Amino acid sequence: MTTPRVIGMLGGMSWESSAEYYRLANELVRERLGGLHSARIVMASVDFAEIEELQVAGRWSEAGDLLARVAVGLQAAGAELLLICTNTMHKVAEQIEAAIDIPLLHLADATAAAVAADGLHTVGLLGTAFTMEQDFYRDRLAGHGFTVLVPAADDRAEVHRIIYDELCLGEVRESSRASYRRVIDRLAAAGAQGVILGCTEIELLIGARDSPIPVFPTTRLHVEAAVAASLGGDGG
């Protein structure tokens, strides 16, 4: 068997979802290879408080420089492909990609492939306010030929609040699950054929049973693409 390529995980944003990345990668490799096999991973986990401060201040270039330095360290540690374990910080994906010589597996591309495989053309997007309101992520998805719908302003604010005030702190509340269900229902009523869980923490709260339309869990889809690339040799 060809030695699997080492997956570099740029995580900590938040560590709650990064832990899911690590767990899922190892479970998927064990499913594929059996026995005692596990994923070949190097992970760097940053201090999310520093990143969040830069997000709020709009200092994206500084955040990109910080993450690019960490990515270079992952490459030096042996990573052969890279995941940015957060949707929002794909805003600086080009900065990070420019600093390294290994493939970066873009989360939006992995998600778009799953949407395309299901034959959908209109999808709702849930995520942080940055992801829902700025064009870096929506345009990347739209570039694959989809129409992307986002919730109304009040719903966006509530979705964002739950991510930062609860999910990033490991709090999973039934009242918040109910709130997300209502937002998804409104997206479906507006024409969404599926909904992208475009924040890696949302999967801690929402699953397929919570939605009347198909859900696309970006964390799992990203890890599945990484494991396929690691075991199959496709740089993505």
Please, could you describe this protein's structure?
This protein has 236 residues and is an alpha/beta fold. The chain is built from ten helices and seven strands. Strand 1, helix 1 and strand 2 form a beta-alpha-beta unit. The radius of gyration is 17 Å and the shape is globular. The model has no long low-confidence stretch (mean pLDDT 95).
Biggest sheet record: 4 strands, parallel
Number of strands: 7
Overall morphology: globular
Arrangement of strands in the largest sheet: 5-4-6-7
Uncertain parts: none
Mean pLDDT: 95
Instruction: Indicate the proportion of strand residues.
Output: 5-15%
Helix content: 40-55%
Q: Kindly report the oligomeric state of this protein.
A: single chain
Q: How large, in whole angstroms, is the Cα Rg?
A: 17 Å
Q: What are the secondary-structure elements, in order, as H or E?
A: EHEHHEHHEHHEHHEEH
First CA to last CA: what distance? 20 Å
What structural class should be given to the helix and strand makeup? alpha/beta
Annotation field: number of helices: 10
Layout of strands and helices, then pairs:
Blueprint: E1 7-11, H1 15-33, E2 41-45, H2 48-57, H3 60-76, E3 81-84, H4 93-99, H5 107-117, E4 122-126, H6 129-133, H7 135-142, E5 147-149, H8 153-165, H9 174-189, E6 194-197, E7 215-217, H10 218-232
Parallel strand pairs: 1-2, 1-3, 4-5, 4-6, 6-7
Helix pairs in contact: 1-10, 3-4, 5-10, 8-9
